[in-house]
Amino acid sequence: MDVRFVARNAVIDDELRSYMREKVSKLGKFFNRILDNQVLVSFGRGMHNVEITSNANGVIMRSEESAPDMRKAFDKALKNIERQIKRHNDYLKDRALLRTRDISFNLEGFVETEPLLPAEEEIVKTKRFPLRPMTAKEATMQMELLGHEFFLFKNVETGLVNVVYKRKNGGFGLIEPLE
């Protein structure tokens, strides 16, 4: 299993890198479809920030935590990823999806571009990625795994691009274009 490290305004010493690699590599025992992982470490505002992203054959799981100590931030983020993997495994078992198609995006497909608008209307980040067909339920699950408020996907039932989102009063919403 591949583990990549990225450090921004921080240094990962060899001992900590070895500790992180060992712990992240053990994620495979929870879910054998994990292909690669990225550990992003940064330091800002007096806190160590650790973001762990795991790609499980297209299903992206992500956790971000902060703490005064880098190892504590890492351990908290790792615990969140383990919890997401368990929840995903339970979902797959409940829905008998173990033998179905991939249901999400490949992290390698993201491309960041430069802002195009003036500063007062500036878009600070643009992401481009391939849309994979999935059901609204699968898209909702992927949104939850990523910790996002909304999720763009191609609806397998209609063939159209849809958005699922978290509603403020609880539950989820689905945005469909008029044909």
From TrEMBL:
Keywords: Cytoplasm, Ribonucleoprotein, Ribosomal protein, Translation regulation. It is found in: Cytoplasm. One of its GO terms (molecular function) is ribosomal small subunit binding. Its main location: cytoplasm. It comes from the Bacteria. Belongs to the HPF/YfiA ribosome-associated protein family. Long HPF subfamily. This is Ribosome hibernation promoting factor. It comes from Aminobacterium colombiense (strain DSM 12261 / ALA-1). The gene is hpf.
